[in-house]
UniProtKB/TrEMBL annotation:
DNA-binding stretch(es), residue numbering of this chain: 124-143
Alphabetized SUPFAM superfamilies for the sequence: Homeodomain-like (SSF46689), lambda repressor-like DNA-binding domains (SSF47413), Tetracyclin repressor-like, C-terminal domain (SSF48498)
Organism whose genome encodes this protein: Brevibacterium sandarakinum
Coiled-coil portions: none
Swiss-Prot/TrEMBL keywords: DNA-binding, Repressor, Transcription, Transcription regulation
Name of this chain's protein: DNA-binding transcriptional regulator, AcrR family
HTH tetR-type domain sequence ranges: 101-161
Pfam families found in the cross-reference section: TetR_C_6 (PF13977), TetR_N (PF00440)
InterPro entries xrefs: BetI_C (IPR039538), Cro/C1-type_HTH (IPR001387), Homeodomain-like_sf (IPR009057), HTH-type_TetR-like_transc_reg (IPR050109), HTH_TetR (IPR001647), Lambda_DNA-bd_dom_sf (IPR010982), Tet_transcr_reg_TetR-rel_C_sf (IPR036271)
Gene Ontology MF terms: DNA-binding transcription factor activity; transcription cis-regulatory region binding
Signal peptide (residue range): none
Superkingdom, natural source: Bacteria
């Protein structure tokens, strides 16, 4: 990962040091983390010693395996993505975060996969315990019940999305390209993204029947809307996007993405059509036809 401001070496040093700290506090062995990231242990050792740079996907894998965020690993203070509630604490940004314990984190990841594939109503605590290789009592030690565990899987989905945004958007200075990439990262295309969307879709269904004010989800969605809005405002500031009410434009764009995403998730629309519809909307309503980039 390069840095346009000439601070790449410094960021590499921060990432290396923080990767070591994340590994140390994760309760996982170097071999386990390497396997989770998808690289051999030798490559991980080189990265941890500063002789090899972590790739973007490796940073994402490391953050997921150890329970920290990509933003913390990079020492990143950029505003490319609004920060989720649970990561907004005003404590020292250099302090090593306290990740979930490995057993709790593994239970959440296992439940996340089962809920995404089979649905909240179908999956039992016993199913999660069996898949995670733990007892029912172990799950109840960390969670009040299935609903509490589902809420944890929603937080996990939010973390995955936040990590992707920080990892991939920080080096894209062009607001138009950044918005396109942001929407791509949040699209229900690919196994992980489809699982996230399944969790979000089930959350929407539950909130439609329950009191939405008792859930953190509205705040999570507001964070996502803020990210889109900030990107639109950046594009408006340099003339790439049309002038107008950035909040309304963000609302309309995220609503379109939601609707198209549900169609993809339910098989009504294919990925290629999804991308065409989204691109067409951006050109018709967001992108300034008189901008230098659009006319080039």
């Amino acid at each position: 990962m390069t840095d346009r401001n000439g601070t790449g070496a410094a960021k590499l040093g921060i990432a290396t040091q923080r990767a070591k700290e994340a590994l140390r506090t994760s309760e996982l062995s170097q071999r386990q983390v390497a396997a989770s990231i998808g690289i051999d242990e030798t490559k991980l050792s080189k990265s941890l010693s500063g002789r090899r740079r972590f790739g973007t996907e490796e940073l994402l894998g490391l953050a997921t395996a150890t329970g920290v965020t990509v933003r913390w690993l990079l020492g990143d203070e950029s505003q490319v993505s609004a920060t989720p509630l649970r990561f907004q604490a005003g404590s020292d940004p250099n302090r090593v975060p306290t990740p979930d314990s490995s057993p709790r984190r593994f239970i959440v990841e296992t439940a996340w996969d089962l809920f995404a594939r089979h649905g909240y109503e179908t999956v039992r605590i016993a199913d999660i315990a069996e898949a995670a290789g733990v007892s029912n009592a172990s799950i109840h030690y960390y969670f009040d019940g299935k609903s509490d565990l589902f809420d944890a899987t929603l937080d996990y989905s939010v973390k995955l999305a936040f990590d992707r945004q920080i990892a991939w958007l920080g080096e894209i200075s062009n607001p138009h390209r950044r918005l396109e990439r942001l929407l791509e990262l949040q699209s229900p295309i690919g196994r992980t993204a489809r699982s996230e969307w399944s969790i979000w879709l089930q959350t929407w269904a539950r909130l439609g029947l329950e009191d939405p004010y008792g859930s953190d989800y509205p705040a999570h969605y507001e964070r996502w809307s803020q990210t889109v809005r900030a990107t639109i405002e950046a594009g408006q500031a340099d003339g790439q996007f049309r002038p107008g009410d950035s909040e309304a434009m963000a609302d309309e764009l995220t609503s379109l993405l939601d609707g198209l995403g549900v169609k993809v998730l339910t098989g009504i629309m294919d990925a290629a059509t999804f991308r065409r519809r989204l691109s067409s909307y951006l050109k018709r309503t967001i992108v300034n036809p008189n901008s230098d980039e659009e006319s080039s």
